[in-house]
Amino acid sequence: MWKFIIRRLLIMIPQIAILSIFIFILAKLMPGDALTGMIEPGVDPARLVELREQLGLNNPWYVQYIDWVKNIFQGDFGRSFQFKVPVTTVIGERLANTFWLSLATLILTYLLAIPLGIISGRYNDTWIDRLVTGYTYVGFAIPIFIFGLIMVWVFGFQLNWFPTSGSVSPNAVPGTFDYVLSKIRHLLLPALSMSLIAVVGTVQYLRNEIIDTKHKDFIITARSKGASESRIYNRHILRNSLIPIAAFFGYEITGLIGGTIFIESIFSYPGMGQLFIQSIHLRDFSVVTALVLLFGVAAVLGALLSDIILSYVDPRIRIK
């Protein structure tokens, strides 16, 4: 097991290196450079040339890339052109909101997906299975930004059950119970919107696993020995069907990255996804570069986590 993990970690290193090169080259192709956010309009052109030389902007791209990587290892992602502060400060202010939104989405996704998948798989080809399956087909077809807009319109503006923007009420005092309650109220609707879409893949997978397991030889043997249906489901079918679902946990992280970018923008939720869209509009490429790199690393780590769980569930993967 440890050999497999170490091998996967070693594979991950060139993946992240190639990703960082790709991101850096794309950033260099964007209009503007590191001076864009540091100088005021009307600066003497001679001073500009001097500053470009001091910052190494006249160096070949690979020299600039090496300097960029060295700074990242020291925790320096550069300076935001728009906010005039270090990029780490800008991202740090939004990181907690995105973390709690992602955590709430993951919890809601599994709380909804597992019961729906079990019911749909156990009572397949019944009206309730058709209802759940129909919902998953609709969920697959609706883009998340369309679904998010519908949720805002229905539960935010029509029913007025949830706030439609922000992460906390302006008059809430940090450290009080009302502040925590306000944070939860602002978090629920975007998290629910993402989880209702994220749930469809897990429901379909769990349903199919249960249906396949129901017809395997060891289940037929258990029935022939007179075991009750509840015992067969709880001790054999569910145990074997639920384990592979855990392997999807890592891939859910990758899906959440894309989801937060759209959902945070729709709900004006001040997280990393909204910051990413804002930075693209403002051409704040220091922030964009840092966020793309962080999102990419998170996706690679999510895939690594899924592979480790899969290898634990199915040891044959380690051998391959």
From TrEMBL:
<keyword id="KW-0813">Transport</keyword>
<feature type="transmembrane region" description="Helical">
    <location>
        <begin position="287"/>
        <end position="313"/>
    </location>
</feature>
<feature type="transmembrane region" description="Helical">
    <location>
        <begin position="9"/>
        <end position="27"/>
    </location>
</feature>
<dbReference type="InterPro" id="IPR045621">
    <property type="entry name" value="BPD_transp_1_N"/>
</dbReference>
<dbReference type="InterPro" id="IPR000515">
    <property type="entry name" value="MetI-like"/>
</dbReference>
<dbReference type="InterPro" id="IPR035906">
    <property type="entry name" value="MetI-like_sf"/>
</dbReference>
<dbReference type="GO" id="GO:0055085">
    <property type="term" value="P:transmembrane transport"/>
</dbReference>
<dbReference type="Pfam" id="PF19300">
    <property type="entry name" value="BPD_transp_1_N"/>
</dbReference>
<feature type="domain" description="ABC transmembrane type-1">
    <location>
        <begin position="95"/>
        <end position="306"/>
    </location>
</feature>
<keyword id="KW-1133">Transmembrane helix</keyword>
<keyword id="KW-0472">Membrane</keyword>
<dbReference type="Pfam" id="PF00528">
    <property type="entry name" value="BPD_transp_1"/>
</dbReference>
<feature type="transmembrane region" description="Helical">
    <location>
        <begin position="187"/>
        <end position="206"/>
    </location>
</feature>
<feature type="transmembrane region" description="Helical">
    <location>
        <begin position="241"/>
        <end position="267"/>
    </location>
</feature>
<keyword id="KW-1003">Cell membrane</keyword>
<feature type="transmembrane region" description="Helical">
    <location>
        <begin position="99"/>
        <end position="119"/>
    </location>
</feature>
<protein>
    <submittedName>
        <fullName>Oligopeptide ABC transporter permease</fullName>
    </submittedName>
</protein>
<comment type="similarity">
    <text>Belongs to the binding-protein-dependent transport system permease family.</text>
</comment>
<keyword id="KW-0812">Transmembrane</keyword>
<feature type="transmembrane region" description="Helical">
    <location>
        <begin position="131"/>
        <end position="155"/>
    </location>
</feature>
<dbReference type="GO" id="GO:0005886">
    <property type="term" value="C:plasma membrane"/>
</dbReference>
